[in-house]
Specification:
The chain is an all-alpha fold and 132 residues long. The protein has helices at residues 4-32, 44-68, 73-96, 103-130. It starts with a helix and ends with a helix.
């Protein structure tokens, strides 16, 4: 069973990697791609806020599921990931139909953040399954 220390370390790791990625992302758009995000439908902080919130919720549910029934963690992860993908598509849809000049950069930006958090969640889910 997963203990409180493991639970805390999982969330600290999520926050650490999220903040690290966020700061790097903001610096990239501040110095390398300066001004390219001016017409983005969603700001970088809004996207990180959405994906961090989704990740926290997914991890909370996975930890709870592990305590109840370890055999359901994998299926629960797949279901929650699918639900997150649906929510992400709802957010992405207005970007797909946007016509501003930086729409390609905005799509790439969105997918990079999505992939980052999917990687973090998958890594944590694997670790949860391995600690049985």
């Amino acid at each position: 069973s997963i203990n409180t220390l493991d639970t805390c370390s999982i969330f600290w790791e999520l926050l650490f990697f999220s903040v690290l990625a966020f700061v790097g992302h903001m610096l990239l758009f501040q110095f390398v791609f300066s001004g390219r995000d001016a017409n983005f439908l969603y700001t970088i902080p809004q996207l990180y806020g959405f994906f961090v919130s989704c990740s926290i919720l997914i991890l909370l549910i996975l930890i709870r599921m592990k305590r109840k029934n370890i055999d359901s963690v994998g299926n629960t992860f797949m279901l929650l990931t699918c639900l997150k993908m649906v929510l992400a598509y709802v957010l992405l849809h207005p970007i797909l139909s946007a016509t501003h000049t930086e729409v390609a950069a905005e799509k790439t930006n969105f997918f990079m953040i999505f992939a980052l958090f999917l990687t973090i969640e998958t890594t944590v889910a694997i670790r949860l399954l391995n600690k049985s």
